[in-house]
Amino acid sequence: MTGKRRTDGVVVTTRTLDLVRHALLRAEAESSLARGETVRLVEGGTADGTRVETVVTGFARAAQSAGGHVIRGVWNSGRLATDAGEHLLDADGVCFCRDCEAAGGNCVDDDE
What we know:
Elements: E1 10-12, H1 23-34, E2 39-45, E3 51-57, E4 61-65, E5 70-76, E6 79-82, E7 88-90, H2 98-103
Antiparallel strand pairs: 1-2, 2-3, 3-4, 4-5, 5-6, 6-7
């Protein structure tokens, strides 16, 4: 993704729900909006150009996908702390947890 990205994301409403391209994330956003929760979309991209979407609902619950699996967790300071595995993903899907950094790359398991 080129240009400067807003780490707080853009607010999603029922009118702008189509901003969320990933079907599962869009469905989660729609459900959250129906419950009256605030929904934000944070966009990123991988080095190979794959779009990464993070939907943040309420105060901090979040789900992230780069097109395949959805990884869930808590969004804080521009990072997703995953529910499983203790990974710390940024908006581009890159992990900054201690294990991944020690391994010299992203050790996130898509099945999380």
